[in-house]
Write a structure and sequence with these properties.
Radius of gyration: 20 Å
Order of helices and strands: HHHHHHHHHHHHH
Distance between the termini: 36 Å
Shape: globular
Helix content: over 70%
Number of helices: 13
Structural class: mainly alpha
């Protein structure tokens, strides 16, 4: 028995977006497994992602006949600079604080995006979103306070910067209305150049290069593609729920592979963030379903 078209599309969206969230959750463990110097890892990971962008652009434009720009105009370049700086600060955060701190703080991206949309696009968040933001600020505060006590404040600050830069890129993309599908991959050339210039004079220093190449060529492009495709089938709140897979799973993978156990205060702050985001997403989905119900006939 075949599924109705809407149900089939929804299940397809759940599968695609689930794969994207799962792939993203392996990013930090693969970076750690590579056992390399931070700038060497940044250059190698970014170069691999950039090469995938070139291949994808060639296939889409030359073989499939779809006209998609690598970087669509000034808006694409600006969004790309934000994405590139975000990769830069993300790697610094991975090397200067615990994995759990990084992923929990980066989960604040959606709330930064809501604030930026409010300021620059005049899209006032709902009262429920404002309440969620207040709760999440409290959660991030717990994690950063713990970072201050443990000497990881710089890494936590880099994670906050990553969340803000990613939110800036999202806001620019939304304001432009252009197809930015390849921008995060194509503009990886910027952090690649920075990483190469700051790498050790004796050359790229990575003990296990296979893992970072695998991350840059397979996992990161797969994650970006699936999570960018998800909104075609699912609502924004549902897609947002799958981004939480990285927040939840990345610390688990690192705990299993490297025996890195988060502190109790970090776990408490992370629980506050996750529950706030899940609650907000569920509320948005319920609101959408209610709005979709047609009014009764009189």
């Amino acid at each position: 028995m075949s599924l109705p078209i809407d149900a089939a599309h929804h299940r397809r969206g759940l599968a695609i977006t689930g794969i994207g969230g799962l792939a993203l959750s392996f990013d930090i463990p693969l970076i750690r497994a590579s056992d390399g110097e931070v700038w060497s890892l940044l250059a190698t990971r970014s170069l691999c992602t950039f090469l995938v962008a070139l291949i994808a652009w060639f296939v889409l434009n030359k073989l499939l006949g779809r006209r998609i720009a690598l970087v669509p105009g000034k808006e694409g370049l600006l969004a790309g600079i934000f994405y590139g700086l975000g990769s830069f600060t993300f790697l610094l955060s991975v090397f200067n604080t615990a994995t759990a701190n990084v992923v929990f703080i980066v989960a604040f991206t959606s709330m930064f995006a809501a604030v930026l949309s409010w300021v620059f696009l005049k899209e006032r968040p709902s009262n429920a979103t404002l309440l969620t933001m207040a709760i999440m600020v409290f959660g991030v505060g717990l994690i950063v306070q713990d970072g201050l006590k443990s000497g990881n404040f710089f890494g936590d600050a880099m994670a906050v910067s990553s969340a803000l830069l990613l939110a800036c890129a999202i806001t620019v993309s939304r304001a432009s209305g252009k197809d930015m599908g390849l921008v995060p991959l194509a503009t990886a050339i910027f952090p690649c150049i920075i990483g190469y210039l700051l790498s050790p004079a004796e050359g790229i220093a990575i003990a296990q290069p296979f893992w970072i190449v695998f991350d840059g060529t397979i996992m990161i492009p797969l994650a970006f593609f699936c999570l960018a495709t998800g909104p075609r089938y699912l609502s924004a709140p549902e897609v947002g729920m799958f981004y939480l897979l990285e927040t939840i799973l990345a610390p688990v993978w690192v705990w299993i592979a490297f025996n890195e156990v988060p502190t109790s205060q970090t776990l408490l702050g992370g629980a506050v963030l996750i529950l706030a985001l899940v609650g907000h997403s569920l509320w948005q989905m319920r609101k959408r379903s209610v709005e979709a119900i047609p009014p009764p006939l009189h």
